[in-house]
Design a protein that fits this description.
The protein is α/β, with parallel strands linked by helices. The chain has two domains: about 1-55; about 70-270, NAD(P)-binding Rossmann-like Domain (Rossmann fold, 3-Layer(aba) Sandwich). The chain is built from eleven helices and ten strands. It has helices at about 1-10, 20-30, 35-40, 60-65, 75-90, 120-135, 150-155, 170-180, 205-210, 220-225, 230-245, and strands at about 15, 45, 70-75, 95, 140, 160-165, 185-190, 195-200, 255-260, 265-270. The strands form two sheets. It has an eight-stranded mixed β-sheet with strand order 5-4-3-6-7-8-9-10, sandwiched between helices. Strands 1-2 form a two-stranded parallel sheet. α5 (about 75-90) packs parallel to α6 (about 120-135). The longest helix is centred in the last third of the chain and has 19 residues, at about 230-245.
Length: about 270
């Protein structure tokens, strides 16, 4: 597409394509915003929104992130921060799954929870927020509960899954489905000042080992609650694991659990053989 390349060369400033030019390019070549962004990245140019990524993420890697599909199970405390960071990172296809609506008790910690969003489905609010942040990405909102029966259909197109649920039973079902489908799972959980993060490859049984003595009931978060800052920290660590895994960089928190103690500012790794 010589004319497309010439247009990019004409509009680029230090190899960057501004959002206004990206919109004009999409109109001129009859592309969706997502198609335009993919074509721009494939041509070796970078949308200006990713300018501050380029010292650590190459244009080719940014294209890979844009072509990736990540599912987030839960759009509450952890999930809201995860979704926002994935959108800003440039993950091109995001699947948001949560059956709930926002309630007043969510306002203390959930990024997507506002007075105007009370009573609205969390996935609907999430999709609107992410489209406001980055209209070039594709967001699929599924206002349904994740179960072992629905799991395979919900995750059918996902390259990677992020655990942001608040139920141990659902978390174990999620781990089992991801293992069966051979999809990597980024686990996260929070309670009060504390949190934990792990990356689980297919074939590993990290959560089954972690919760081997659990039989029923909610986790410790039901007793300790959650403040505004704990989900932000754990979610950011989960998104860092997403980025590393997709780009095959760094060392994931695999076959171990990263524990977070914000009261003492202590982070420890616990091996899980």
């Amino acid at each position: 597409m010589d004319s497309f390349l010439k247009t990019l060369q004409k509009k680029a400033r230090e190899n960057l394509i501004s959002w206004s030019d990206q919109q004009l390019i999409a109109q001129e070549f009859q592309l969706t915003l997502a198609e335009a962004e993919e074509e721009i990245l494939q041509a070796g140019f970078l949308p200006t929104r990713y300018q501050r990524n380029q010292q650590m993420i190459s244009t080719r890697q940014q294209l890979h992130l844009f072509q990736s599909r990540v599912a987030v199970i839960g759009c509450g405390g952890l999930g809201g921060y995860i979704l926002e960071e994935l959108a800003r990172l440039g993950i091109g296809q995001i699947i948001a799954i949560d059956p709930d609506v926002f309630e007043e008790s969510n306002l203390n910690r959930q990024l997507l929870s506002t007075m105007s969003s009370l009573g609205r489905p969390k996935v609907e609010v999430a999709k609107q927020r992410l489209n406001d942040i980055n209209p070039a990405i594709r967001v699929t909102a599924m206002a349904t509960a994740f179960t072992k029966d629905t799991g395979q259909s919900l995750l059918a197109s996902a390259d990677l899954v992020v655990d942001a649920v608040d139920s141990i039973a659902t978390r174990l079902e999620l781990a089992a489905v991801c293992n069966h489908m051979k999809i990597p799972l980024i686990h996260g959980a929070i309670a009060g000042w504390f949190g934990q993060v792990a990356t689980i490859a297919p074939g590993e049984e990290t959560l089954q080992r972690l919760y081997a003595n659990w039989h029923h009931g909610k986790g410790v978060e039901s007793q300790l609650g959650n403040p505004s800052f704990t989900p932000a920290v754990a979610a950011s660590l989960q998104v860092a694991e997403v980025c590393k895994l997709l780009l095959k960089q760094g060392t994931p928190v695999s076959r171990k659990m990263l524990t977070i103690n914000l009261l003492t500012m202590q982070f420890d790794e616990i091996p899980l053989p």
